[in-house]
Design a protein that fits this description.
It is a single chain. The chain is an alpha/beta fold. It folds into two domains: 3-123, Response regulator (Rossmann fold, 3-Layer(aba) Sandwich); 127-221, Arc Repressor Mutant, subunit A. The protein has helices at residues 11-23, 34-43, 60-68, 84-92, 105-124, 155-166, 174-182, 190-204, and strands at residues 3-7, 27-31, 48-52, 75-79, 97-100, 129-132, 135-138, 143-146, 149-151, 172-173, 211-214, 218-221. Helix 2 (34-43) runs parallel beside helix 3 (60-68). It is elongated, with a radius of gyration of 18 Å. InterPro entries: CheY-like_superfamily (IPR011006), OmpR/PhoB-type_DNA-bd (IPR001867), Sig_transdc_resp-reg_receiver (IPR001789), WalR-like (IPR039420), WH-like_DNA-bd_sf (IPR036388). One of its GO terms (cellular component) is cytosol. Keywords: DNA-binding, Phosphoprotein, Transcription, Transcription regulation, Two-component regulatory system.
């Protein structure tokens, strides 16, 4: 049974999410603040976290940042604020989805299912190690090495690189990247993709040029096997 951690300082919201989650076959653990969530994540493994933004003791964004330091758990943020800045900030932290209150519990569960499915696909869809000159990508272990030195990416940066490599030498539009990696096409915009590409290139260092910008279209991971 998949395990969810629901973090919100409003007991009624936790109760509603728990009810729908258990009906959908999930096991649910509750936390009323960010500090408690961090403690629970240190002790237990969860398949997904539903995290409120505005909470006492420690806000949701800060909590996610701390949790991501020691565990790669997909996260859906809940917030009464729908400003683009908040969404982009969340994406920068590696958040997988962003739901604005008030929300439909049925829609939330659909998003939970979609995020868990995508995350499992990223983890288990490819088990081999691929090398592109001095860039080494281990899909199963979710590790990246640049000239033998490990480089740490955010979960979304890893998912983006994984997808680009999986579709290497194929032109990918920003809309397709946003839809296939984030799983929706109505929250983000071109800046969401461009910001993640910029950060990913910085992390790739000398191999940043493998990610090619296609003006007016999007991006592609360009690499020709020199052994062919």
């Amino acid at each position: 049974m998949k395990k969810l951690l629901v973090v919100d300082d409003e007991a009624k919201i936790r109760e509603v999410i728990k009810e729908y989650s258990e009906f959908s076959g999930y096991e649910v653990t509750e936390a009323a603040d960010g500090m408690s969530a961090i403690g629970l994540c240190k002790l237990n493994d969860y398949d997904l976290i539903i995290m409120d933004v505005m909470m006492p003791k420690l806000d949701g964004f800060s909590s996610v940042k701390e949790i991501k330091k020691f565990k790669d758990i997909p996260v859906i943020m809940l917030s009464a604020r729908g400003e683009e800045y908040d969404k982009l900030f969340g994406f920068e932290l590696g958040v997988d989805d962003y739901v604005v209150k008030p929300f439909s519990p049925k829609e939330l569960m659909a998003r939970v299912n979609a995020v868990i499915t995508r995350h499992e696909g990223a983890d288990h869809g490819t088990s081999n190690v691929m090398k592109f000159d001095g860039l080494e990508v281990n899909f199963a272990a979710r590790t990246i090495y640049i000239d033998g030195k490990r480089v740490n990416l955010t979960p979304k940066e890893y998912d983006l690189l994984f997808y680009l490599i999986q579709n290497r030498n194929i032109a990918l539009s920003r809309d397709k990247l946003l839809s296939d990696i984030w799983g929706y096409d109505f929250f983000g915009d071109d800046r969401t993709i461009d910001t993640h590409i910029k950060n990913l290139r910085n992390n790739l260092g000398p191999y940043r040029d493998f990610i090619v910008t296609l003006r007016g279209v999007g991006y592609k991971f360009e690499y020709e096997d020199k052994e062919k």
